Amino acid sequence: MIYDKYMQKCFRLAEKGRGFVSPNPLVGCIVLDKDNNIISKGYHHKYGENHAEREALLKLKNGEENGGTLIVNLEPCSHFGKTPPCVDLIIERKLKRVIIAMQDVNPIVAGNGIKKLKNAGIEVVEHVLEKEAKSLNEVFIKNMVNKTVFIAVKTAVTLDGKISTSNGSSMWITSSKARDKGKLLRKYYDAVLTTSSTVLADNPKFDCKTKILIDRTLKCDFSMQYFKTGNIFVVTSKSDYPKCPKNVTFVYCPEKSGKLDLLYLFEKLYRMNIMSVFVEAGGTLNGELLKLGLIDKIYMFQAPKILGDNNGKSAFEGNSINDINKSFNFEIESIENLSPDILLTLKK
Ligand code: AOF
Ligand code: ZN
User: Fold this and answer.
1) Which end of the chain has fewer CB atoms within 10 angstroms, the N or the C?
2) Which of 16, 21, 51 to mutate to test the pocket of ligand 1 (most atoms within 8 A of CB)?
3) Assigned superfamily of 144-347
């Protein structure tokens, strides 16, 4: 209990690394001296750089941490990776107590860090705000445990779940505040995935580092603004590739019953070190991902508008379920008021 507020600070520190540490976890650390004053803070800034504990401890030069407490949201590592084990440094710096939110799910650490600390006579308090810590590192956990990509779907709907009208006008369902939030969320994921239907209908830019375009039959024209920015992977079942701009790489994906084999695609993306994708596409792809059970998270922006029976598309097409007991179910994680709209965040 007494460590909750420090752990919350660790979460906030860890958050600063979001968008930069993948495939590593988000980690923040606080060091208290023996009288429980905060004497140092650290976080994992960027993949390949110092771990949170190392950053926090290396800032201390006069031994004030001797007999103190280290608080961190992930079990300190025990392996030689890009840097030496954090547990060795904690032991060397003579901390008395280590407070941890969750065990590391990386099999090379998984409990070994805790064991090593205890063997060195350090008191270890585990499971402090564990649920929150697991939610913070949901991508890392999915990657390590399932060896697959974390998939988040973003959609913007009306009160009746429509993403467009029958004439296809869909760009401005939500207001600019909601759209700005959507752009921010994009940066939290390794890549933004969309389809040729969306690019051809909306001509979006999708400003971000890595973009994945599902374009089975290579329908898109490289002069479109979508192709002007980012590193772009174009996924197709064709094997003869046309001339393309320098920022475009083709990714082959076989077909299954006339559609791209999405399971094959996500396995391939994982092997390409793309650990998480933010899907911004239409109801067809969303519906297929849903059917395959691939959606880990949904960001549902909802505008207080009603279109009624307009033959427009809904956010998740193609799963006509008539029995309410057979619905796909998600759990509400948060509801944010982005007046005039809301953002409903859901998890599997
Ligand atoms: C920590 N604190 O801040 C991080 C940890 O590639 P490396 O060498 O950086 O090692 C990555 C692994 O180390 C990662 O999979 C996870 O198990 C742990 N990450 N551990 O104690 C940190 N980022
Ligand atoms: Zn470490």
Assistant:
1) N
2) 51
3) Dihydrofolate Reductase, subunit A (3.40.430.10)
